[in-house]
Amino acid sequence: MCISHFLFYKPLILNSLFEVFAEESSKQVGGVVNKTKSAIQSYRVGLLLEALIIAIPYSIRFRSIIPIITVLLGAALWDVSGMFLAIPFVGILKIVFDRIPDLKPWGKLLGDTVPTHHKGEL
Fold it and tell me: Among the residues of the chain, which ranges form H helices?
């Protein structure tokens, strides 16, 4: 059944391929390929940011009020981009505070617990 469909659409497929790979349309095809490449790259960056924004609050135990305050302060400082970047920034600060002995009280202030064993430690 599949081969019969291919044979039926063979002239259409071949004409389309000849048009796409013709020398006259190479600039148009190049433009489409470049736009597709940039769209895929933007999508990948968006997925990375989404993973950071979603994964950090779940992997780090914040107090309930900290993400709300963080997003509001981020919005006040940097508008919408600040809202997205505020939680990962505070998450990184909490990790640093938890690992430096003199800053552990700040880590306790941001989160419910201060971990005693960290990933990557022997």
Answer: 2-20, 26-59, 65-99, 104-110
Q: Kindly tell me if the per-residue pLDDT of 66 is higher than 80.
A: yes
User: What is the DSSP code string of 80-96?
Assistant: HHHHHHHHHHHHHHHHH
At residue 59, φ and ψ (nearest 5 deg) are -85, -20
Residue 1: pLDDT over 60: no
For the entire predicted model, the pTM comes to: 0.51
Spell out the residues 6+ positions from residue 53 whose beta carbon is closer than 8 angstroms to its own: 84, 87, 88
CB 29 within 8 A of CB 20: yes
pLDDT confidence tier of residue 43, bands split at 50, 70 and 90: confident
Kindly report the backbone phi and psi dihedral angles of residue 92, in degrees, each rounded to the nearest multiple of 5, phi listed first.
-65, -40
Distance CA 74, CA 77 (A): 5
Residues in Cβ contact with 104 at an 8 Å cutoff, skipping those fewer than 6 apart: 97, 98, 114
Beta bridge partners of 62: 111
